Amino acid sequence: MNVQIQQVHTPQGLRWQVTLDQHVVTFAHEAEARQFFTTLQARLQAPHSLPAQEQYLVTEAH
Fold first, then answer.
1. Is residue 54 assigned to a domain?
2. In this structure, is residue 60 part of a structural domain?
3. Buried b (16+ CB within 10 A) or exposed e, 4-31
4. Number of domains the chain contains
5. Confidence (pTM)
6. Which of 48, 54, 60 is nearest to 1 (CA)?
7. CA–CA separation, 59 vs 47, rounded Å?
8. Per the CB 3.0–4.6 Å rule, which of 16, 43, 55, 59 could disulfide with 33?
9. Cβ burial, residue 2 (10 Å; 0-12/13-18/19+)
10. Per-residue pLDDT of the chain (62 residues; tens, 9 = 90+)
11. Which residues, at least 6 apart from 18, have a Cβ–Cβ distance to it below 8 Å?
12. In terms of residue numbers, what domain contains 17?
């Protein structure tokens, strides 16, 4: 996944955007954007385990 942070000019003034692939979140303050960016990066880089496969019994009604 591609995560980026950038400064943008909007009609409301200077803003910060964090982009995760095609999803964009806009912040009024750089500190908020950087905190969100850091959290996203940490979650993406964290180890992920797949759930254990469970076996299901299938019974047929007669």
1. no
2. no
3. ebeeeeeeeeebbbbeeeeeeeebeeee
4. 1
5. 0.71
6. 48
7. 37
8. 16
9. exposed
10. 789 999 999 999 999 999 999 999 999 999 999 999 999 999 988 887 877 765 555 566 65
11. 3, 4, 5, 24, 25, 27, 33, 36, 37, 40
12. 3-45
Query: Is 23 part of a structural domain of the chain?
Result: yes
Look at residue 31 and tell me if it is in a domain. Answer: yes
Closest CA to 26 of 6, 52, 54, 56: 6
35 φ/ψ angles, rounded to the nearest 5 degrees: -65, -45
Distance CA 51, CA 62 (A): 33
Contacts with 4 (C-beta within 8 Å, 6 or more apart), sequence order: 18, 19
